[in-house]
């Protein structure tokens, strides 16, 4: 990673930490805290509005989410739908647990979101155990890639399955991560294979809540 880019990510991480500390001091998040995140903030709003039609919502581990008809994606300060049953928020953060060679391969192969042919999607919110967060960064990296091959497995399905990870733990949300996938209908089997593979890994032993939401774009 170039030095300038690395410094930028460090700056962003420090800014997020400062916003979190301010919110903790107040006991809640103020609207201005979220506004400062800009377009790095995304909200998935479950209700009756949105371009993504819900095919299924199921709890893989832990508590469920209420059933909804549609999910709207709202970025930054974009207005939210007036009615909703739930909202999940996350931010685009710096890449973690990824080495330089892996980052280069990911950047060269991954597809952008929003492709016209990618009319299928999955939103999978995940929360990990305190045992995971109590591990050192080095130990988490070992479980994440050396033992579970998370990055290597994901690369196998590029560019067919586009993916974006949103960090939620940083902003005090009930889930730690929101994983968003988009793919064309003919790649549905490949996506199911990817999900099955990851759920069998050692990393997933540290997951204590997971919701699987499948969607289609009309």
Q: Could you list some keywords that capture this structure?
A:
Alpha-Beta Plaits, alpha+beta, 218 residues, single chain
Outline the structure in words.
With 218 residues, the chain is of the alpha+beta class. The chain has a single domain, classed as Alpha-Beta Plaits. Helices cover 33% and strands 28% of the residues. It has seven helices and eight strands, in the order H-H-E-E-E-E-H-E-H-H-H-E-E-H-E. The protein has helices at 3-26, 31-35, 100-109, 130-133, 137-147, 150-156, 188-199; strands at residues 41-47, 52-61, 70-75, 86-91, 120-128, 162-167, 177-183, 207-217. The chain has an eight-stranded antiparallel β-sheet with strand order 4-1-3-2-8-5-7-6. The longest helix has 24 residues, at 3-26. The protein is globular and about 45 Å long. The termini are far apart. Residues 5-11 and 19-32 have low confidence and may be disordered.
